[in-house]
Amino acid sequence: MDLFLETQNLTKTFGGVAAIFNLSFATRKGSVYSVIGPNGAGKTTLFNLLTGIYKPTSGAIRFAGSSIVGQPPHKISRLGISRTFQTPQIFLNMTVLENTLVGCHSHGTSGFFSAAISSPQSRREAARLKEQAMENLRFCGLDHLAQRDSDALPYGELKRLEVARALSTKPKLLLMDEPAAGLNDSETSKMGELIQGIQKLGISVMLVEHNMALVMAVSDELLVLNYGEYLAEGTPEQIQKNQKVIDAYLGMGDENDDLFD
Ligand SMILES: Nc1ncnc2c1ncn2[C@@H]1O[C@H](COP(=O)(O)OP(=O)(O)OP(=O)(O)O)[C@@H](O)[C@H]1O
Ligand SMILES: [Mg+2]
User: What's the whole-number mean pLDDT along residues 56-64?
Assistant: First the structure.
């Protein structure tokens, strides 16, 4: 598989403290690549760097062969990187379908909402975007809820709506920040199947997640971060046997205890 997303000596400091320090890694096209590490390890900061929300203090980021450092978030989105958020970024006053359409905007030639009141061409465009949004909702098991107000959704569905919205930009790479946080066992296994389904569509996935059973089940490769620094990289089997990882995880809180279950 080709190298897809690469960082070299990536560093981000806040007030002199490094949240990410000298981090180099590379993912492969088509893979599920997970980033694990204790609370505060720098996982969300890494996603904010990769999506252009933060500018690195130093270092390089390449996506599909081109540097993306210094590009604004909407350009990086157009290049094919989309994300879900640790805390769902859903508009609670909109319907499920409307939330999914928010993601479609960057791919329409005219905006969906203005399109609805103008030319036949833009009305066709609006219909096409709506059909795409419905397809993404179907894929995420939410199509029967399309007209529901988003604030009426149970948390498991809200987390899947995050995914449907992120898929609407037609990403080549989807960054998922703790998609299973707050989910019960059956919702978590649905999320696992959804991640595998996304990979089957040909979309590469980068996953940040504390649920180790889920991570070990879906990942091709893992990166372990410790205080913002590279600790180890490898397959689930390699990581579970890695002495540095075992040592770093010993004595951590309950949330991280299931690494070796
Ligand atoms: N905008 C910011 N300003 C100052 N410090 C920040 C900022 N964003 C992150 N940090 C710091 O960077 C470090 C890494 O935080 P980050 O949110 O990336 O961790 P995380 O691995 O995602 O943790 P969690 O598993 O709890 O979500 C923390 O010490 C955090 O306080
Ligand atoms: Mg985080």
Answer: 97
